[in-house]
Amino acid sequence: MAQFKRILLKLSGESLMGEQGYGIDTNRLNDYAVQIKDAAETGVQVAIVIGGGNIFRGLSGAGKGFDRVKGDQMGMCATVINSLALSSALGAIGIKSHVLTAIRMEPIGEFYNKWKAIEYLEKGEVVIFSCGTGNPYFTTDTGSSLRGIEIEADVMLKGTRVDGIYTADPEKDTTATKFDEITYDEIYTRGLKVMDLTATTMCKENHLPIYVFNMDVFGNLKKVLEGEPIGTFVHN
Hints:
Blueprint: E1 6-11, H1 26-40, E2 45-50, H2 58-62, H3 68-92, E3 97-101, E4 110-111, H4 114-122, E5 126-130, H5 140-150, E6 155-160, E7 165-166, E8 178-179, E9 181-183, H6 184-190, H7 197-205, E10 210-214, H8 220-225, E11 232-235
């Protein structure tokens, strides 16, 4: 893969838990911040969406009796907490960043605007998008697809806790085999759960490729940007 000019990095909120089982593991947070700093200092424009599953997940809350809309709004607030934590960690190591929210909540974050986001990116500053799409019933994966398409990113880098896409869940099926690359159509045909269908369809229809890799291994983000084949490339 060629060097990218602008990336949308999707980070898992659950991965921020580290070994704690809940909340934010500062070691994992700082690892992420250092990797993002290294990427930004190569000249790559870095935009980020981070989930909130380490704090609250709206869909699971609905299964426990929460109103779905309020549950999803709670999940959006969880993404803001994670975004502020990441922004703080980046600031501590000298990287300027901006938290943009899909719901108005100044002065906690700036209200999202495509043109302002691109202006920051072109200055070499990191942009962190929070609150997903700002609407219930949509995941942060869909939020990532939407923002990646809007800011005209070259690729969505989906950082997970596994090293790519497999024929089955490698944590449950030891015979699962990994794809080096796969098309969107094949994801549909095989019923693979890379992201939710809305997010996957948006990327397919707008020609935004995805690269799935293990972000929890320190240094992997740099390897992906250098073209090292450590994950799975998804394309039309």
